[in-house]
Amino acid sequence: MKLTVKTFQKLAFALDFKPNFVPVPLSLKSFTDFGQDKCESRSFKFLREEIPVRLSHIMREFHDLPDSFSSRKSVQLVRGWYERSYEELQRYEHQDTSDPKVLKQFLENIQAILNRHAKVVETMAQGVMEMQETFNIDPKSSTELQYFLDRFYMNRISVRMLLTQHVELFSRDRRRKGGDHIGIIDPSCDVGQIVDIAYNNAKQLCEQQYLISPNMDLILCNNSNENQSIQMVCVPTHLEYMVFELIKNAMRAVVEFHSKETEVPNIKVIISKGKEDITIKISDLGGGVPYSVTDILFQYHYTTAPRPQENGPSPALAGYGYGLPLSRLYARYFGGEISLSSVEGYGTDAFIYLKVNPEDANECLPVYNKTTSKMYDTNQVVPDWSSPRPWNQSYRTFCTGTRFYHTSSWTQRLNTCKHKQTFTDRLQRENSI
Ligand SMILES: Nc1ncnc2c1ncn2[C@@H]1O[C@H](COP(=O)(O)OP(=O)(O)OP(=O)(O)O)[C@@H](O)[C@H]1O
Ligand SMILES: [Mg+2]
């Protein structure tokens, strides 16, 4: 499809219009109920409304981005993909929900959209790096960018979840696979098994890079049934992604901190199931980080690892600065959280908190409204403390969007670690989610 002036005007109208509808967050419970019903026309009816609404909310936010970022070629490319997918889905607005031909076409279209958006993370990251190379990013733009990327990637996770679920449930090839899974959801996912898989994958990478890797001590603490494994309703690929990223970080810290020793201390993983939370605690003796950088660790593109080799022989263990912020989004998506607590000179504890009850695990979705536009509106960020606040360096909180003063040392830190690289290995993992 060519983006003619007319199409653009139509889109502009649609963009103004659709954000008036608020996205409908689903709980994990509604995903599984919906999946068990397996009613394709019902799913079609929901998606043809909901996906354009979710897309339009984030597309609207593109307009508010600083020019230095939105004018990047790669950002415009991503924007073009969103506009095209939005347009395609709009065509189903008045189509017959029970016509098998329409349902088939919709399914194929969705698959095409998933493929089109497969390289979004890589392409946006490219845009950020281009911007960092071209401009000396001012604190306000940096803050806006982090705020936008969190919302943009969260939106992407949610849209991919809905689309992939539809494809998994209704595409003929996928249906033949069978098993207990409801689409991409495992209603009785064994958390210990996922941790094992993630550990072994990280171990392989670590050994490729350092020829050594820490062992893992795994402790299960099932408060509801002592002798049983810990199970939960979840999307195993999301869980594996989070655990893998945190274990990779722990392994790298341990091996580097003990680089002069012949043996390295173990990583300790505790999985505990309470009434409300399933908590996975990953502890390492990797020397930790200073308190002042704890929050910066969650900024996109912040890394202390060297730039991974382009087309290197094996995927890198670290170096992209995406592991923590993206993992945290996967946790937050269904109402969970990831946090880090570090003791400088000793080690780090990383925590993944997830909801035990699928009824409580509600999608957390970015909504475009007046508050959002204000976040991008204010021209100047004025410090309202005499010195940068030493006890909390997160300048805008995730949900409330409170604006804080942004220190220049942060920008310096970010600029020192800017680099160009391929995101191929990371993408291979993200695309499968
Ligand atoms: N357990 C840890 N101990 C010490 N430092 C850590 C730990 N976890 C994270 N960090 C620090 O946080 C930085 C950011 O982590 P993050 O996972 O986001 O990116 P990365 O590991 O550098 O690259 P990648 O995106 O490939 O994972 C790391 O470079 C490292 O400096
Ligand atoms: Mg990492």
From TrEMBL:
Localization per record: Mitochondrion matrix
Record family assignment: Belongs to the PDK/BCKDK protein kinase family.
The enzyme's E.C. designation: 2.7.11.-
Name assigned to this protein: Protein-serine/threonine kinase
Domain of life per record: Eukaryota
PROSITE patterns per UniProt: HIS_KIN
Pfam families assigned: BCDHK_Adom3 (PF10436), HATPase_c (PF02518)
Domain Histidine kinase: from-to ranges: 236-358
InterPro entries assigned to the protein according to its UniProt record, in alphabetical order: AK/P_DHK_N_sf, BCDHK/PDK_N, BCKD/PDK, HATPase_C_sf, HATPase_dom, His_kinase_dom
One GO cellular component term noted in the UniProt record for this chain: mitochondrial matrix
Organism phylogeny: Eukaryota, Metazoa, Spiralia, Lophotrochozoa, Mollusca
GO molecular function, one term: pyruvate dehydrogenase (acetyl-transferring) kinase activity
Keywords, ordered alphabetically: ATP-binding, Kinase, Mitochondrion, Nucleotide-binding, Transferase, Transit peptide
Keyword Mitochondrion recorded: yes
Catalytic activity: L-seryl-[pyruvate dehydrogenase E1 alpha subunit] + ATP = O-phospho-L-seryl-[pyruvate dehydrogenase E1 alpha subunit] + ADP + H(+)
Biological process annotations from GO: regulation of glucose metabolic process
